[in-house]
Amino acid sequence: MHLTRTVVGRGRSAAVLATTGLTASAVLLTGCGGGSDSSGSKGPDENGNVTLIVADYGQFGYKEAGLFEKYHELHPNITVKEDVTTDEKVYYPKLLQQLNAGSGLADVQGIEVGRIKEIVDTKADAFVDLGDVIDVGDWVSWKGKQATTPDGAVIGAGTDIGPMSLCYNTELFGKAGLPTDREKVAERVAGGWEDYLELGEEYRKKAPEGTFFMDSASAMFNAVVSSNAEQYYDEGGKPVYKDSASVKQGWNLAAEAASKKLTQGLAQFSDPWVAALRKGTVATVACPAWMAGQISANAGEANKGKWDIATAPGSTAANWGGSFLAVPKQGRNVEEATKLVKWLTAPEQQAAVFEAIGVFPSNRRAYELPEVKGAKLPYFNDAPIGRIYAGEATSIPEAVLGPKDGVIKDTISTQINNMEQRGTAPGDAWKAAIDAVDKALG
Predict the structure, then answer these.
(1) The model's pTM
(2) Is the dihedral of CA 72, 90, 127, 36 positive or negative?
(3) Which DSSP state fits 209?
(4) How many Å apart are CA 211 and CA 260, to the nearest integer?
(5) Which residues fall within 8 angstroms of residue 397, CB to CB, at 6 or more apart?
(6) From the first residue on, what is the mean pLDDT of each consecutive set of 10 residues in the chain (442 residues)?
(7) Are 411 and 436 in contact (CB under 8 A)?
(8) What does the buried/exposed string (b/e) look like for 144-172 if buried means 16 or more CB atoms within 10 Å of the residue's CB?
(9) What dihedral do alpha carbons 430, 226, 289, 381 form, nearest 10°?
(10) Rounded to 5 degrees, what angle do the CA atoms 290, 108, 35 make?
(11) Which residues, at least 6 apart from 244, have a Cβ–Cβ distance to it below 8 Å?
């Protein structure tokens, strides 16, 4: 589960989903793997056998989908081992250290979307250009661009993406007199996140005691900002978080949600947030593809069938999350590592990972495969997640990424939490957020 890939911009947790042809319970992990047990790339042994090391964070789903074993069957002289760091915030500094030292890197390295711009700008020369190996045109357009340098080198092959939807508790909606059908819910928020808050005010009028319309205003803020092309940087690479229209919109909506008590003010993935899902006190959650696994695992069997999934508010979707696989040039098995990356990110393998743990493919060719196209989620009233997320993926704008997107987002989110939890005035919270971001960026 991407679970606690506690990553920049999200707490990404992979969940085992019950999809068409697969019946399994969603499982939540508090960590997806232990510390490193591999020392980096090593050349073939005396018999020509190669061990490829894939270093990543959280849970990418390759073991769960049986892909490493399958690759060994196809290539008997190659064994693939995964070197997992549970927390991406631990993994990334180590990756930078290894890049700077020029040693210790694995044959394949995972890179989080919140880091890819910094790697493209500052470390691209350390990685193999995959442009002639993978067909970037197979990926959703903005995914390929995120890992492409100004001179056209593609340093990362896209794994998953996080198209946004809206997860909602049908039982709470019904008790509050709101529609429960996913198509009707989608209609009510079709005008955007402003409509979403209006729906929240309607919910509050008849809300069951002790319940809240949303879990977190900071999660909504992230969804609002992520549904726009310009977020924290402009096309020239200049930080614009103080004046960005999407940041202002997201902040104002978050402040409104906090002031109107529409949010429970919970930091996502915290113990209180988990408890709220289990107790059924939250009616809606901004829901990237991987979030469904978080909800089903934490809400538990007692709430199965009480949740559903509708398309996200507005005409453009947001992307929350996603990663890349890159091949360091200093590796001892560059050619074989490159072949492995091509295979792991091919549509069939991305579909297998989706079926195994529910992370949504970035390779568009996977969307027509039955494991994706026909996927439904029993926990969420058989929501047609393959169709919903594929549709959302095509409407995600090509966002401008910056090297410190994650730092900016997390810093602003902290102050949104202060508005929710401590009652900090919006003006004071905004000033504190900007001062903190300014300091963090130097």
Answers:
(1) 0.83
(2) negative
(3) T
(4) 14
(5) 142, 227, 228, 229, 316
(6) 36 38 31 45 90 94 95 98 92 96 96 93 97 92 93 97 96 98 97 97 97 97 94 94 96 97 94 96 95 91 96 90 96 97 98 91 96 94 94 88 90 95 95 96 88
(7) yes
(8) bbbbbbeeebbbbbbbbbbbbbbbbbbbb
(9) 80
(10) 70
(11) 225, 230, 231, 232
Provide the 10 A C-beta neighbour count for residue 349. 22
Residues 241-247: contacts with CB under 8 Å, at least 24 apart: 241/408, 241/412, 241/434, 241/437, 242/434, 247/412
Q: Which of 25, 84, 22, 77 is nearest to 58 (CA)?
A: 84
Give SS3 for 421: helix
The whole-angstrom separation of Cα 399 and Cα 364 is 18
Q: Where are the alpha helices (DSSP H) in 15-55?
A: none
Residues 6+ apart with CB under 8 A from 295: 167, 277, 285, 287, 307
> Is residue 313 helix, strand or coil?
coil
Token match 């360091």: residue?
A: 328
Strand residues in 190-299 grouped as ranges (E): 212-214, 282-288
What's the pLDDT at 285? Answer: 98
Residue identified by tokens 């009707």 is 184
Closest by Cα among 314, 105, 351 to 197: 314
Q: Find out whether 108 and 316 touch, Cβ atoms under 8 Å.
A: no
Residue 65 corresponds to which tokens in the numbers above?
A: 């989908």
Q: Could you give the C-alpha distances from 198 to 202, 280, 288, 362, in angstroms and in order?
A: 6, 21, 21, 33
Q: How far is the C-alpha of 53 from the C-alpha of 336, rounded, in Å?
A: 11
